[in-house]
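Hey team,

Filing this mostly as a record. A colleague (T.K.) asked me to run one chain through the structure pipeline before their review meeting, and I want the input and output archived in the tracker in case anyone asks later how it was produced. No errors, nothing strange. Just documentation.

Input sequence:
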Amino acid sequence: MFTSLLAEIFTVVFRTEPYHKSAAYVVRDEPRRVLKPSEVLYNIRVGDGVVPPVSLFNGTQPEKIRVYLSVYSLDEDQEIKEIAISSYSRNILDPYRAQGPGGARSFPDTILNYSFTSSDRDSLMCCLSLEHEDGIHLGRCYLSLEKPNSVGTEPAVRLPVINETDTIVGTMHCSVIEVEGLDTPFSTSPPPPLFSSPHTPLEIGHRGCGVTHTDRQLFDSLPCLPENTIGSLMMAYQHGADMVETDVAVTQDQKAVVHHDLEIQVDDVTAVPISHVTSNILEKLPRPNLEITETEAREQLLSDRADNMDLIKEVDQFPTLVEILHKLPSKLGIMLEIKSNIPEVGIDAVPYHSDKNTYVDTILTDLFEHCGSRKIILCSFCPTTCVMLRNKQDRWPVVLIVQGSTDTYVDYTDTRLQDLQLSANFALSENLHGLSIFSGLLLEEAESKIAELQKLGLSTFVWGYHASDAKFRQKMRDCNVHGVIYDKIYEEKLEKRKVDEVL
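Output structure:
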């Protein structure tokens, strides 16, 4: 039988040892090594924090099961020995360490992560072996490392657990991330730390000067310039923004363009993915109408400055990432959200990107070539995207955007986005720099939540419609967050500061 042949290839010797249950969060001291162009990182996730990593039909308790990963390269005719493993849940974090002969225990609410690198792309064979804590072999799962599809987060699959007689005795909940090293001639040397201690909270303009498209019903009035246009981003700078938060997606011809949605609304019922449209077609789309009077525009634009009214001309809907890097003042920092389509509860995600590595590489290459000394923070709702950004470079910090589970939005199916504690442990496990937190999660106990996250070494940012309220913004500043992202920054009457003095 084929499974018997695989079993002969994967001979695993186990050792029973006590599982270290961390009493507190642990952060790795060593820096994350950036992948070389020829390397591929494989990150195998077992469990999702809700579904147990392993479920056996005979009722064996998951915490009594150890899971050990073996990887064999047929091309190189050898087993890959250097495998790192981490495990985390809402309350436990065991950071990456070398996998020992005992593997790791499969606690019901724990996510197990196995990580290794290889230059062999086509002939890797993986086996996840299960053993009872008493030393009894329970079964194996065989895992394909074919290229994952292009949905936002890595797709989870249920694999059969097969025993020595080739009988299916249970299931295992797995997913795979494949991260390719970025081939760039530009220096990836990291800059000095992003924040000094103590730090000054950053004033960050949401999509420039604020929402004019999606979620516009949340606001009584709108900015005079359309969101995510050069005019709106520049207007935020003129009103004292330290940084602007903006969104980037990639077209069919591999151009990184600034736009909030992954789709273009053609009419009331038809939407076309940006990834299915070329950049020259986007350039031909009409400019949006400015739904504001000239008097209101002059007030918002500080029309006493001679050049400000010219910003009304800078309202093309799809500026490229390269354009904004060249046209915006170099002192204006950019918090760049890499858009990804993530499955929501009850709503399937459509694969928009033909290849997620190419998608991320397109954006990073533009940054390396054109960003210069500008301060950049990379962020995404998608945990997979964050893992890719973190392992492909270490020049810019990477932040996970956390929505949580509230009544405001439909929950994402990825449990790492539903719970703030789980999000924090994921970020620590993958050596991310921080979290950008939905304001609705900080309506209560904000000070203690933020203090705990910062104690763990995570930077904290706040976004959401509550941040449009001046009192809430001040409360966040008093909690010493690293940045507040909000709309209509022109109403705040900020004094312009040099972002270098703040970061």
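Quick notes for T.K.: Confidence is low (pLDDT under 50) at residues 1-30. Residues 356-370 form the longest helix (15 residues).
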